[in-house]
Amino acid sequence: MNDEQEKLEQELQDKGLSAPRLNPQAISDTILAEQFYVFPGTVMTVCCLTLQNGFNVVGTSAPASPENFDAEIGKTIARNNAVEQIWQLEGYLLKERLSAKLYGKI
């Protein structure tokens, strides 16, 4: 969890906002494995995250100027982009579960 996430988490707790929600740790816990690939002769970095249930999400990065390519920065950006997809998927799943509970579908 980075400083910004910690600050937001503390603010939510300070305001007593404790309804079911996602948090960075819950998102991190869904990740089983990660793989990175840079296509030969390019600056395109791909990150494939395998989730606990076997589903895969992919994030990419590529600088506009090849001179700015840095493999480690590319990995970080590609991974962050993949993680953003997990937030969306897990957000949908949480909402579906809350809806099912609310309407007695469980």
Write a brief caption for the model.
With 106 residues, the chain is an alpha+beta fold. Helices cover 47% and strands 20% of the residues.
- Largest β-sheet summary: 3 strands, antiparallel
CATH architecture of the domain at 30-102: 2-Layer Sandwich
User: What's the SSE pattern?
Assistant: HHEEEH
Placed side by side, the strands forming the largest sheet appear as 1-2-3
Oligomer: single chain
> Could you say what the CATH topology of the domain at 30-102 is called?
Double Stranded RNA Binding Domain
Report low-confidence residues grouped into runs of 5 or more: none
Q: Which structural class do the helices and strands define?
A: alpha+beta
Q: Can you give the mean pLDDT?
A: 92
What is the rounded Rg? 17 Å
Number of helical segments? Answer: 3
Report the top-level CATH class of the domain at 30-102.
Answer: Alpha Beta
Strand content: 15-25%
Ends apart, CA distance between termini: 32 Å
Basic shape: globular
State the helical fraction: 40-55%
Number of strands: 3
